[in-house]
Each structure stands twice: as C-alpha cells, then as structure tokens.
TrEMBL record:
Protein name: Linoleoyl-CoA desaturase
TM region positions: 39-59, 65-89, 101-120, 162-184, 205-223, 229-251
Keywords per UniProt: Membrane, Transmembrane, Transmembrane helix
Fatty acid desaturase domain segment(s): 67-336
Gene source species: Flavobacterium limi
Amino acid sequence: MKAKYFNKSADEKFFFSALKERVNNKLQHKNVSYGDNRFWYKGLFWTLICYSSYLLLFLNSNKTVFWLLYVMFQLSGLLIGFSFGHDASHNTAFRNKKANAVLHFFSFLTVGIDPLLWGLRHIRSHHLYANVEGSDIDIDKNPFLRLSPTHPWKPKHRYQAYYAPFVYMFTLLHSVFMSDWVYLFSDEYDWMKKGISKINLYVRFILYKAGYFSLVLIFPILYTDFSWGFVVLTFITASAFTSLVFIIMLVGTHFFDGADYPQPEGEFLEHTWAVHQLHTSCDWDADKSWARFLSGGSNCHAAHHLFPNICHTNYSEINKIIEETAKEFKQPYHHKTLFEMMFSHFKHLNKMGNPKA
C-alpha cells in the first residue's frame, strides 16, 4: 500500500467542522451509533425471506420453482449483507465489537465473500483512500476493465462499455473463487491484515467457506431431488443475477462520469480527507426510502463515507444537511437517480475506453 497524506487546507477543515456540528445538532437527541428498531426490523425481514426461501428449496420438486426460490435466497442474502453486515463491519450494529463480528460473519454467509477480509480492505483501504490508485484496493487494476485514468489502456477497452455487463455477472463468483484467496495468501496485502493473527485469519476463512459451500451447494445437492449438474447451474446463474444487482447498486457510487481519481503530488493528496470523499462519491436516490431500504444506506454514499460511525438508518436525516453545507462552502456533492448513475457509469466506461483519457 502506498500511504498518502491528505491536504491540511484550513478552509476545507472549517467546512467539515461546520458539517459535523450541524449533523450532531440534528441527531443530538438520538442514539445514532448503533442499530435502532428500523435497522433490526429491516435486517430481520431480509433474513426471514432468505432462509424461508432456502427451506422451501427442499420441499419443492419443480425445476422452475427451485430456480426462482434459489434466486430469492441469494438475492435476499445479499440484502442481509447490505442491511446488517455493512454496519456490523463498521461496529454500528451493536455496542459490543465481538457481537458486531459475529453478526458480520453470519450476514455474509450466503454471499460467499470472506467477511473479515472484506471488512479489512473496506475500512483500512477503501474508506480512507477512495479512488486512489495503489491505496484503494477497490480500484486496483483488473484484466477486464479500465475503470480509472491511472490504469493502462488496451485496445479491448474500446468495447468495455458493451461487454462490462457480462464481466459484472461474474463479480461475486470471482471474489469467492479468486480474490479472497489472493487477499488471504498474498504477501502484497500484509499491510491490510496487520494486527490479525494468521491462525485467526485462516481458521475463520476455512469455517466461513465451509459454511458457505455447504449452504449453497452441498446441502441442495444431497437433500433435493435434482441432479448435481442442475444445482450447480442454478448456483451459477443465480449468482450472476445477484452479482448484477450488487453492481448496479454500488459500481456507480465511485466510478461515474465526473468522479475524481486523485494522484498525490509527492506524498500529499489534493484535498482534506472529508472533501476527498465528496470528490470521489456519488449518491443515488438518497431522498427515496425504497432505495435506502434495498441498499442498506449505500445509496447515501457521501453520508456513509463522511460519517461511517453512524448507523445507516439515520442517513435520511443528514443527507440534506450534507447537500446544503457542501453548496454553501462551494464543495462538490454528486447526486443522481439510480438510472442516471448507471448511465453516468457507462459513459465513464466509454470515456476510459479512449486511449487519450
């Protein structure tokens, strides 16, 4: 990891101080650092949908119904991760860190991405250095897409706006079968795993993967009336559909037309940490309750990056404050509808397909 230092601009620091004061005043009579009733009701709703669908898999003998139930199981499992797991990784579900770790582990059980490794890279890399090449793992070079002007251009990138959806269909499977193993065993990511014992990492990894594969493949193969080939095909296609939903909700929050991809001058980045988050994040339908319900607050990306210690069910009360304060202090605030954000993302892909970009 290439450690960077943020600018110490007095004006930008004053902006964030004013923003924090206004947010604190708005939320001063609420316990916002931990999950409230809205948080638990929503998470338990998706948990009920997920495991009810899963149990029904074993009581069904129709292939179409099995596939539909499996998709519902996978999709609602992803939404458990959005609703419970994301907050638990930031220790904003419970007061107790161990309780958050347990919830985090089980919230990711149907997703397949190791929760501990994901949490480490999410907090130690992405939240600190969003969109900074060499520091934010989420923007690392990949063999398929050019997502940043800092990535090398190849002729195939001219067409990436057209083939990207097919790449995105396999994002989750790539994480399950490749990325997790690289993050665990590669010395390149030792900085990310610093302070966590290797035994802890390996034991949790093995337990998690064993639980995941048992749940999504082994049990359905052993205890349903369908062939192993049909179960595996269902797993792959349902994962592809779930992966697309995952990408639709998240990829445009940082990879959109107009986003910054800052590179340091020497060791210093252009902006303070808070303003850096605004330059690199995009909200979508932040004022819509259905969007917050589905995305676990990930649609309120500026709020989440600026106030990761606040449970996501409170973002609805601070989004307007962020927008108005940013405007007052002449700082950027990117907000689009979901459709506009995805259009902007593909416009960005098209732009990155140009060797001169």
